[in-house]
Amino acid sequence: MSTLLLTGFEPFDGETLNPSWEAVRQLDGELLDGCRIVAVQLPCVFGKALQALCQALARHQPSLVLAVGQAGGRAELSLERVALNLDDARIPDNAGAQPIDVPVIAGAPAAYFSTLPLKAMVAALRENAIPASVSHSAGTYVCNHVFFGLMHAASQLPGLRRAGFLHIPYLPQQAAAHASGTPSMALPQIVSGMRIALRTALQTVHDVRLSGGTTH
């Protein structure tokens, strides 16, 4: 049975929870279109997050990976297109590190593109009344750090067919602690949206296996 790996982050920046972990752990152990979902929590720490990710990749050998992170202020599910080889932290991570203008991986390409079928995933989400869009920037904090590290690893793992990153909004209880009007999304809607997006992505994985080639 194939494995679908989901990653989420621990809380950071004074928050008591992180919606990315709250969402992905709801799906841990679930079977989705013949794939077993495994959820792994990553530390919000430069370097250590990639170590944890690489350990999960080696242990579970997934055919598809969706890394998920919090994007406070966004109002929809944002599928990221581009991972930059750049760490430029606005705030310190959970270990107090604040890298400025340094590469995620020295000597690696300047950027990678997601290999998920982003527009098909967005279309499926919108058809199910879940706000979603393609985003062109995952920032330069630990989310992008993980996204870039994931895509660099995926470029060297032929068994990993699809990989990418999803940013999700605050949960309502988080938004209530911020400025009036801060957008949020309920956890059940986020989880439902993730299932829809994953099913769409898995279909392209199945198509690749059937054709023996690639699909976009």
Characterize this entry briefly.
Helix content is 34%, strand content 21%. It has helices at 19-27, 48-60, 118-127, 142-154, 172-175, 187-211; strands at residues 2-9, 31-32, 35-42, 64-70, 77-80, 82-84, 111-113, 132-135, 162-168. The longest helix is centred in the last third of the chain and has 25 residues, at 187-211.
Question: How would you describe what is shown here?
Answer:
β2 and β3 form a beta hairpin. The chain is built from six helices and nine strands. The model is unreliable at 208-216 (pLDDT under 50). It is globular and about 40 Å long. Strands 2-3-1-4-9-5-8 form a seven-stranded mixed β-sheet, with helices on both faces. A two-stranded antiparallel ribbon has the order 6-7. The chain has helices at 19-27, 48-60, 118-127, 142-154, 172-175, 187-211; strands spanning 2-9, 31-32, 35-42, 64-70, 77-80, 82-84, 111-113, 132-135, 162-168. It has 216 residues and is α/β, with parallel strands linked by helices.
Helical/strand content category: alpha/beta
Approximate helicity band: 25-40%
Spans with pLDDT under 50 lasting ≥5 residues? Answer: 208-216
Give the N-to-C terminal Cα separation.
Answer: 24 Å
Mean pLDDT figure? 95
Morphology call? globular
Count all strands and give the number.
Answer: 9
Percent in strands? 15-25%
* Whole-angstrom Rg: 16 Å
What oligomeric state do these chains adopt? single chain
The biggest beta sheet reads:
7 strands, mixed
Give, in spatial order, the strands making up the sheet with the most strands.
2-3-1-4-9-5-8
Series of H and E elements? EHEEHEEEEHEHEHH
Number of helices: 6
